[in-house]
Write a structure and sequence with these properties.
The structure is a single chain. The chain is about 75% helix and about 0% strand. By secondary structure, it is mainly alpha-helical. The chain has a single domain, classed as Hydantoin permease (Orthogonal Bundle), CATH 1.10.4160.10. Helix 2 crosses helix 12 and helix 8 packs antiparallel against helix 14. It is globular.
């Protein structure tokens, strides 16, 4: 390993950073409403199975590539397959992270504005129509751009400080606080009258409500919620000490991700059912339904503020990983400083994100293939580029990387236990599952 490269100070710091990268919009925002639309308990059980059988093997794969080469995403593929097509996996990851940040930062700005408004209690007030409030915030060019700017500035500061002093230190504070706030919110939700109906919906499997579409939703959710596919974890694991066992680290990250999904369900569904709201509300669940429910609770403004702040923490820790894969690619040769690259990247991202930020206001009439700029970018990244990157990684590590190299990295700090199982999953189950999700999102299969 290059002795001049930064490293995580500990395995625990790496696990927290990896968990922070994985736990974001997918785990806290998307999971509750997708589960609500797809059968509750049965969906959650299938989601857990898919996460263990597909997400975990993919996470281990990215760890092997990153820690084994001690290189960031682009250089890792160059080292393992020089002068070949495969280096484009890393380049696809850098481009994908950049495009993802153009709308991820917009949502981060929304949540940042909501969080700032929630602290003095400006969101929950008598007579507030929460759908109209959300529309007024997202439909205001000035408010949206202010949120985008603030979100970008925080990312620039943290990434400029480096791996140890920036990303790792931020995650060491943000991730424990995220779990603490979540537990407080869950306790409050579970004490509501009628909460048991929500718990039963979320934890009691009813397989009669599961359809082929529900299975594909669970598969996609388990896959996308672990931040694999764009080689973010290749870059993160490249800063990891060679003595650390990768499989146990990946297992810890997956466990934390599943635990957060469990907490998200326990925080949301008891509140939704206690007030007779609709669990299948969709994306508006966070910004419209939950404020409506919290408004009817004693200290509802306080608990809404906690929820929004923990959601903001999760978005930040995920955006750090997206920034890092891009910054690492441009600082690898030492020609440019981390501070300069982080600042330039942040400025460029701010301006490139403006069209997505204005998709609900000044540029609302602009459409790409019938979708807004925001939705079109989201579709391109989530439904086309991410599955493609994931499929290429699965093929690359099984068919192009030396088997002895892969097995050595898998077993360092541990044993070869379940190695053959991991290889079987990566050879057949993972790529076939990815192709199914890919075909489904493109509308080729239903």
């Amino acid at each position: 390993m290059d002795n001049n490269r930064e490293q995580w100070t500990s395995k625990f710091g790496f696990i927290l950073a990896s968990a922070g990268a994985a736990i974001g919009l997918g785990a806290i925002w998307k999971f509750p409403y997708v589960a609500g639309m797809s059968g509750g308990g049965a969906f959650f059980l299938i989601f857990v199975i898919f996460t263990l059988a597909i997400g975990l093997p993919m996470l281990i794969s990215e760890y092997i590539l990153g820690r084994g080469t001690a290189k960031e995403a682009v250089s890792a593929y160059k080292k393992l397959a020089p002068d070949s097509f495969w280096v484009w996996i890393g380049r696809l990851g850098v481009l994908g992270c950049f495009l993802l940040l153009t709308f991820y930062s917009v949502v981060g700005g929304w949540v940042l504005i909501y969080s700032l408004m929630s602290v003095p209690g400006q969101i929950i007030s008598e007579g507030t129509e929460y759908g109209a409030l959300f529309d007024s915030i997202t439909g205001s060019a000035s408010i949206t751009l202010i949120g985008l700017a603030l979100f970008t500035i925080v990312n620039i500061i943290v990434i400029s400080l480096g791996v140890k002093n920036g990303i790792e230190r931020a995650n060491k504070y943000m991730m424990p606080l995220l779990f603490l706030f979540f537990i407080i919110l869950v306790v409050r939700s579970l004490t509501l009258e009628g909460a048991m109906e929500g718990i039963a919906f979320f934890l009691k499997p009813d397989f009669t409500s599961i359809t082929a579409e529900s299975l594909l939703y669970a598969l996609g959710q388990s896959f996308f919620s672990l931040a694999v596919g764009f080689s973010c974890m290749v870059t993160y694991s490249s800063y990891l000490d060679r003595k650390v066992n990768l499989t146990s680290s990946a297992g810890a990250v997956v466990t934390m991700n599943l635990f957060v999904s469990l907490l998200a369900g326990l925080a949301v569904f008891p509140v939704v059912f206690a007030f007779g709201l609709e669990p299948a509300e969709g994306p508006g669940l966070l910004f419209v339904v939950l404020p409506t429910a919290f408004a009817q609770l004693p200290l509802g403004g306080f608990f809404l503020a906690i929820f929004l702040i923990l959601f903001l923490f999760a978005i930040f820790t995920s955006s750090f990983s997206l920034y890092e894969i891009i910054v690492a690619a441009f600082t690898v040769n030492g020609r440019y400083s981390r501070t300069m690259v982080s600042s330039v990247l942040g400025i460029i991202l701010f301006f490139v994100s403006i069209p997505a930020a204005l998709s609900s206001s000044a540029l609302a009439s602009v459409e790409i293939f019938g979708a807004s700029i925001f939705d079109a970018t989201d579709y391109l990244v989530s439904n086309i580029m991410l599955p493609l990157g994931s499929l290429l990684i699965a093929i690359f590590i099984i068919h192009k990387v030396d088997k002895s190299f892969v097995q050595e990295q898998y077993t360092i700090g541990g044993t070869a236990r379940l190695y053959s199982t991991w290889r079987l999953l990566m050879t057949w189950v993972v790529p076939i599952s990815i192709v199914l999700v890919y075909l489904s999102t493109l509308g080729i299969i239903g």
